[in-house]
Amino acid sequence: MLEKINNSEDLKKLNIEEKNELAEDIRKYILEIVSENGGHLASNLGVVELTIALHSVFNLPEDKIVWDVGHQTYVHKILTGRKEQLKTLRKLGGIAGFPKRNESEADCFNTGHSSTSISAALGIARARDLKGEKNSVLAVIGDGALTGGMALEALNDVGYSKTRMTIILNDNEMSISKNIGGLNMLLSKLRTKRTYTKSNISLKNIVNKVPILGKPTVRVIQKVKRSIKQLIIPKMFFEDIGFTYLGPVDGHNIQELENILELSKQVIDKPVIIHVLTKKGKGYKIAEENPDKFHATSPFVLETGKSKKQKGKDYSRVFGDKLVELAEENEKIVAITASMKDGTGLTRFSKEFPNRFFDIGIAEQHALGLAAGMASQGIIPVVPIYSSFYQRAYDQVIHDIALQNLPVIMCVDRAGAVGADGETHQGLLDMAFFRLVPNLTILAPKDFKELEDMLEFVVKLNKPVVIRYPRGGEEKALFEKHEEIEEGKAEILKEGKAITIIAIGKFVARAMKIAKKLEEKNIDAEVINARFLKPLDEKTIKESIEKTKNVITIEDGTIINGLGTAVKELIVDKKLQNINIRAFSYPDKFIEHGSVDELEKIYGLDEENIEKEIEKMLETQN
Ligand SMILES: Cc1ncc(C[n+]2csc(CCOP(=O)(O)OP(=O)(O)O)c2C)c(N)n1
């Protein structure tokens, strides 16, 4: 069936049996591709029927669908002319793992970070009304994403304003792990009221029997429907805040989904929320049983579900294990996660210290606000969040933490380029935006051991602090020493006279390798592990630059306001004369998807290029 379908026009010609067959074909196709390329598997398998129903009932690109997070859009891509291209999913130059306006007209809004869809859809709907147009606007949001503050702010606005739009609440009871929170409790009450589906579908039959459906008829229907529900659940949250609530509906029954979507089109004086029940990983038993593991996966063997690559130790694990060790010694230490327990390495901590572990939903702002409150009372909160998601909590870092100088330990996981998830997920801005904030101490370890040492150091520091470390494992380099961490103190790893190489974080290992290669060519490089972006070790760096007169910096962040900028500022401020400087970093642009190795090559951060550039720099000087 999949061979016959290239777009939603083809889809609309199919009957229900054929659509069911198509759903199975799509599942197989997605499994083939994701097992090969890696990607977000379980969420996509869960929305196959829902996406088919949406494309059957609505007409894109006139009608607009905003996908929250956007990790579940593989089916949507298949049904909007990108079936073949999906084979290049997440590869350099290939199709992105998230919706992109520049990829297709059917992608009306870019997403990647959670909980933005309702705001964006409301904006699109208001623009439609201002322009006097009539198209439908929908947001598809998961129960996990609904826990994010931005989604709740938008719900508050949509319900009150009565703007015509539809929210599809894709409820699979999961965020990445099990979903949590009061809203989840509300949804589980609603989930069990299967009778709604029946009553709604029969309402749809009534609607169909009325030839021309006027506003008053809809109102009567709504009234009847509301009174039925009120009998069962005394307090209808969604209806009370201004929505027409439809559902819950079986998210794997295409006919029922189409019926309820058609019904929603009839409601013209209010926003609608359709509660759709789906199963994460649907149709692939191994993912159904381990939806968290298959939320996002590296390439795997289809028959067994086993990863194709042997997974070694990574920074998140090292962080998690060290935190357990520190928490055993210090009962003030607590850990907070914004729905990323596994990803940030906190699973062990959550088991060993359940009372000191807080999963607070996909709510980074709240995570930092909560941490600030705890720190104000003498608790030591440790908050690991991915670099790109820290962007969301910037004001909490400034206003709630730094301004009050509260000792919160902010661990920035996935700092630097992350690879296949692409521009929304690259962790390239954190050094730049954290460096601006007064009172923050900012560190980055050169390897696993230094991360452990830094954690030991910061739990005693009693200041707001940021430690950033990359995705995956450590870059292999044999460090002969690990000096004790002292506040604002860099580490000279190799002495030399020809050039100073200052690196931070994962690139320190690369700096050492480059220095060794240069040595073979009789170029004597000094290597400094900056350790602290702030406060920068001005004394050590100044003395070295004065000696060598040549300096390069290497960092996995944007060119603006990182290590390179800090060293340039130092050269100007200290009036150092006749210095050659070159900063290696990512440029001032959003960095596309591709493997980290590929991206580093493209942006000139690979060993060979840096070595070549150093040689050129020294040659022109001679
Ligand atoms: C701001 C932000 N924080 C964290 C994430 C990481 N993340 C991606 S998907 C996801 C869970 C989403 O759950 P839900 O909305 O229920 O969708 P499902 O995958 O279950 O369909 C999380 C936490 C993110 N994308 N954005």
Determine Rg (CA atoms, Å): 27 Å
| Total count of strands | 17
Q: Structural class of the helices, strands and pairings?
A: alpha/beta
Low-confidence stretches: 195-202, 204-214
At the fourth level of CATH, the homologous superfamily of the largest domain is Thiamin diphosphate (ThDP)-binding fold, Pyr/PP domains
Fraction of residues in helices?
40-55%
Could you say how many structural domains there are in total?
3
Query: What is the CA-CA span between the terminal residues?
Result: 68 Å
Biggest sheet, in brief?
A: 7 strands, mixed
Physical arrangement of strands within the biggest beta sheet:
7-6-8-9-11-10-15
CATH fold description of the largest domain? Rossmann fold
Please tell me about this protein's structure.
- The strands form 3 sheets. Strands 7-6-8-9-11-10-15 form a 7-stranded mixed beta sheet, with helices on both faces. A 5-stranded parallel beta sheet has the order 1-2-3-5-4, with helices on both faces.
- Mean pLDDT is 93; it is low at 195-202 and 204-214.
- The protein folds into 3 domains: 2-289, Rossmann fold, CATH 3.40.50; 315-468, Rossmann fold, CATH 3.40.50; 492-621, Rossmann fold (3-Layer(aba) Sandwich).
- The chain is α/β, with parallel strands linked by helices and 622 residues long.
- Helix content is 42%, strand content 14%.
- Strand 13 (499-503), helix 21 and strand 14 form a beta-alpha-beta unit.
- The chain is built from 25 helices and 17 strands.
- The protein binds thiamine diphosphate.
